[in-house]
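[Solved] Which block belongs to which protein?

Original post:
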Amino acid sequence: MSYAGDVTPEQAWSVLHDEPGAVLVDVRTRAEWSYVGLPDLSATGKDVVLVEWQRYPDGAVNAGFTAELEAAGVPKDAPVFFLCRSGVRSVAAAEAATRDGWTRSHNVLDGFEGPHDDQRHRSVAGWKVAGLPWVQG
C-alpha cells in the first residue's frame, strides 16, 4: 500500500491551517530540531509532532517510530504530513505510517531545507525557502 502522496510545503501549510485535525510530523533528528530550526504552527493553534525517523547520532532507523506516533496521539484517519530535511526520510516515514494504518500520510516535498544545489548548499527549496513560518530551535 502506497502513502497518500507528495505535497508541496505550501499545500501542507494550507491544509494544516484550514483543517483542524491535520498534523505535521517532523521526522528529522533532535540535533536538526535544535540547531536548524522547526516549522512554527502557532498561527494554526497546533504544535509540530517530533518523532525521529532515524536516531541521532548513529542514524539507526527508529524501530518504534509508529508506536511513538500513536503515543503522540496522531489520529490514524487525520491528514498527516511528514517533513524531514529534504523530503527523503519523510517518504520512508509516510510509507511506514501507511503500513501501520495511517490512511492519509503525505510526504512534504523538499522538506525543511531542500536538496543540495550545484554548489552543495541547502536552503534552495523547502519549507524555509517557501517563506512559511519557522523558528530557530
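(Second protein starts here: sequence line, then its C-alpha cells.)
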Amino acid sequence: MTFSTLARRCLGALALSAPLLAFAYPTGPIEWVVPYAAGGGSDVVARVIASEMSKTLGQPIVINNKPGAGTNIGAAYAAKAKADGQLVLTADTATLSTNGFLYAKPGYNAEQDFAPVGLIARFPMILVVNPQVPAKNLQEFLAWTKAQSNAPAYASPGAGSPHHLATELFSDLAKLKLTHAPYKGAAPAVQDVIGGQVPFMFVDTAAGGSHIRAGKLRAIGVASLKRVQQFDSIPTLAEQGLAGFEAYAWQGLVAPAKTPAAAVQALNKALLQAVGTPAVKERFQTLGLEAIPGSPEEMAAYAKSEREKWGKVIKAKGIQLD
C-alpha cells in the first residue's frame, strides 16, 4: 500500500468520524421537566433517577416542576425547547396517550414533538373498596354494585386520569352503571374512599399501597394480567373472570423532537443504568412500581398502543376536558 493510498484512507476515516468527534454531550447541566407538583409520585421518581443518571452523564440534572392542565403546561414547554439534549421531560399516559383526545388544543403534538428516550415504570392499579362495602372479591363486588338502587359512585384523581379511564373500561366490560366522582388529585380521592364518602375506586399502588397494607382499603383485584410482586396475595381481575382487563398509569422520558441521536442514545444508556441501581430499585419497591426499561423504539411502540386503546374509550364515552 502506497503512502498516498494510506493517507487517503485515514483522511476518509477521519471525515466519517468527524461528526461524532465534534458532538460533545452533555455540555452542561440538564433540565428535567416534571409536569407535576413537587413531592408527588412522578416528582419522587424523577429525582431518584436523575441523581443516578447524573453520575453516568457527568453533569447535574436539575428538576423543573411545571404542573398544570393534566401535564399540558410542562409538555408544551418541553416541546418548544431547544433540541440539543440538554432538556428532558417526564412523559406519561396523559402526555403521550390521552391528552390528544381529551383536549382540543393541548399545546403540543404527542406523536411529532418528542423523541422517546425510554420507558421508566408503570403503576399497577388495584380496585379497592371501603371496608364497609360487603365484598371481598370481584363476583361479590359485581353483585353488590348491581343491587344498588342508584348507580354507585366511584372516585378518581380527576376527569381523564388513567384511573377514571380504567374505571370506564371496567364498567363496560363488567356491564355496570356507575357515577363518576372526580377529585383534584389522588390523595383526596383516596381519603374519601377510606372515610366512606365514596365506596370505591381504582387506585395506583403508589397512592394506595400503604392504605391497603394497613387495612384502611380492601383490595378486590389488580388491573393487570399478572399479579403484582409487592401485592402477590391480591388476585387479578382477569383471573377472577374479567378476561383481558389491563390498566396502568405509566411514565417514561422524552426529549424535544430532532434531538441528536447521539444524545438520545446517551440518555437512554444512563436511564437504563439508573433503573438498575439499588437506590432506584429500593424506591420503586417502596412505591409499588414496576420498572419497564427499554429502547426509544420500544417506548414509541408502547405509547402508540396506549393511544389506540384509550383513544377508543375516550371517544366512546365522549369525555372532553375543554
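Accepted answer:
You had them paired correctly. Confirming on the second one: The chain has two domains: 27-122+248-317, 124-231.
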